[in-house]
Write a structure and sequence with these properties.
five-stranded mixed beta sheet, 9 helices, about 35% helix, globular, five-stranded antiparallel beta sheet, Glutaredoxin, single chain
Length: about 325
């Protein structure tokens, strides 16, 4: 699977491979004497001193380094400690970086410094996918299918990504079974590993400016011709493919040279980053996320939303 950064082996445990990790092996010393301060009357905890906060952050870093063998060459930063929405816990973000790549995860830390918990905190009274759907920004993206569809599938893809081509083969088999759904393609070119992906994304954007039909024909032909495209021939090859798809080649080249076209692709990249896309292809079915060319999950998610089950009332 193509990654946003080429260090997956080094950073394989960044997301803490298990859903929840609870540790009680080390108790954090709250003071130089090791005593735990008593909470004030009423049960509210006093705000920690800057020194205590720094010590707790260092304790979390040291513990996670030990658990995941993050040694020299791997940078671990524990962010500010803020009160968690529930429980007597702090919440923080841990960012792990190595060789130009990075990833992050939210962790919860007990205020006595004894426990660290990795997991997701969900409010069951709100739509769990509403925030993700709001951040996808699909209004100006390439799409096919009814705009008022009951189910919307959004792919963040890279035209040079071999695994995206595998997903394309899956989509060609699955989507015709569901003409009532909407499919949206968002650009997410991985420039660090795919040298012509950005150029292809810009060409796709410019083809879309001429017509959606031209875009989809170009989209399909790029994947079909992926092995024939190289950094050396990419502009000529994409121009030929776009012209065959019905594009005006002069208008296409003018658009591709316009900085606004690059900005549009980078805006799509930012949208992907906002919903934690780190590899391609990443797919969202009404906000539910999966990575890779997985036909079973794709159909499972589509079928579920086409035939919704009763759910608890959302306040």
């Amino acid at each position: 699977m193509t990654m946003k950064f080429p260090t997956r082996a080094v950073l394989a445990t960044i997301c803490f491979a298990i859903a929840i990790t609870v540790s009680s092996a080390i108790t954090f010393a709250q003071s130089a004497q090791g005593a735990k301060p008593a909470p004030p009357a009423g049960g509210a905890a006093t705000a920690p001193t800057p020194a205590a906060t720094a010590a707790l952050q260092k304790h979390v870093e040291d513990y996670l380094r030990n658990v995941y063998a993050w040694g020299e060459g791997i940078d671990v930063k524990v962010g500010p400690l803020v009160p968690a929405p529930v429980g007597d816990l702090y919440q923080t973000t841990v960012v792990v970086s190595a060789q130009g790549g990075s990833d992050s995860a939210v962790v919860f830390v007990s205020k006595d410094g004894r426990y660290v918990l990795r997991g997701e905190l969900d409010d069951m009274n709100i739509d769990p996918f509403a925030e993700v759907k709001n951040q996808l920004h699909i209004e100006n993206a390439a799409s096919k299918g009814p705009k008022d569809a009951a189910v919307t599938v959004v792919e963040f893809g890279d035209f040079e990504c071999p695994v995206c081509r595998q997903l394309e083969e899956v989509l060609r088999g699955v989507l015709p079974q569901y003409p009532q759904i909407r499919f949206v393609f968002k650009d997410f070119p991985l420039e660090s590993v795919h040298p012509w992906a950005m150029t292809a994304a810009i060409a796709g954007h410019c083809a879309l400016q001429q017509s959606p039909d031209i875009f989809w024909k170009l989209h399909d032909s790029i994947y079909d011709s992926q092995d024939l495209i190289s950094p050396e021939n990419v502009v000529d090859k994409l121009t030929d493919l776009a012209t065959t798809a019905g594009a005006n080649p002069a208008d296409l080249k003018t658009c591709m040279a316009d900085p606004k076209s690059t900005e549009a692709v980078r805006a799509s990249l930012q949208d992907g980053g906002n919903v934690e896309v780190t590899s391609t292809p990443t797919v969202f079915v009404d906000g539910r996320k999966f990575v890779g060319p997985n036909p079973n999950l794709l159909q499972q998610f589509i079928e579920y939303d086409l035939h919704p089950r009763p759910t608890p009332a959302i306040k």
